[in-house]
Design a protein that fits this description.
With 285 residues, this protein is an alpha/beta fold. The protein contains nine helices and eight strands.
């Protein structure tokens, strides 16, 4: 059995890693965008984003001032035995990671209504920020993998979860999603955008598959559906930071759940920003 102290340390490392590093596939996506982008202002922004990411990784400092809300994906091997307090250990690691980073103080003080209205202000301690509920997955063999995704506020404003009538053609669903993205991308600010889409039978399932799209995203692998979305979004010529250009999206990621006999599909779309997905995984054996 994996002991609690190792789980705490792994969760802490995952928070700091997700907040301060571009993965190799992200860097490659940026270098590819630099080769394609024709607008000089947008090319300058892309270069600054790369430099910012490299410096953040070197200093283990936040890659963005909006350090985001921790979302945890826990994958447990089907031959692994885990401690009953595993979620408590992960939450403790999250707190320690936010304190060391440090994260932006964003936890709101008060009871339910006071938190809704933000009437009492916020805690100064970044470790007071609670993580979102854990998404549980399974893999073959032993060990556990703790993945932390940091989700900032801007994409949540431009995201959408709603029903779509398929009309017996899946392309109708994809076209609706593309319309949502086009509506929001010019207002996002931190472009180039990275849309994440989950399609399911319920709002919960669609949102879970959207998070799974973030969890599994690799810019080196784009499906035909994902490439279609990127191609259509790039036609908007929003460019980096809305300055214009032919790179408005670095990539798109779609995950489709099992479906049921119904005239509608439930779609969750998160219009990720230029540093998404902020993700880091730590594996324990």
């Amino acid at each position: 059995m994996i002991i609690g102290e190792r789980i705490i340390q792994a969760a802490k490392e995952a928070v700091i890693g997700a907040s301060s590093r571009f993965r190799e596939d992200q860097l490659q996506a940026y270098y590819k965008a630099l080769e394609i982008e024709e607008d000089e202002k947008s090319k300058w922004v892309l270069k600054q984003n790369i430099e910012n990411a490299l410096l953040a990784s070197l200093n283990h400092s936040p890659i963005c001032d909006d350090t985001g809300i921790p979302h945890i994906v826990l994958s447990i091997g089907n031959d692994e035995v885990v401690p009953g307090k595993i979620q408590s250990y992960i939450q403790q690691g999250i707190k320690e990671g936010l304190a060391e980073l440090p994260g932006r103080p964003m936890a709101v003080i008060g009871n339910e209504m006071e938190r809704l209205g933000q009437t009492l202000g916020m805690y100064d301690d970044p470790s007071k920020l609670e993580a979102a509920p854990v998404l549980l997955m399974e893999h073959q063999g032993k060990g556990i993998k703790i993945t932390v995704l940091m989700l900032g506020g801007g994409p949540e404003i431009r995201g959408k979860t709603y029903r779509v009538f398929h009309k017996h053609d899946g392309q109708n669903v994809i076209n609706e999603v593309i319309g949502w993205i086009k509506e929001g991308v010019s207002k996002l600010g931190c472009t180039p955008a990275v849309p994440f889409v989950g399609i399911g039978r319920t709002h919960f399932e669609a949102s879970s598959y959207m998070l799974r799209a973030m969890y599994e995203a690799n810019f080196n692998h784009q499906t035909d559906i994902e490439q279609q979305i990127v191609t259509e979004i790039n036609k908007e010529n929003v460019g980096s930071l809305g300055l214009g250009g032919n790179i408005t999206s670095l990539g798109a990621f779609v995950r489709i759940a099992p479906q049921r006999a119904s005239g509608v599909r439930i779609v969750s779309m998160r219009l990720g920003c230029s540093i998404d997905p902020r993700r880091h995984s730590v594996c324990l054996e």
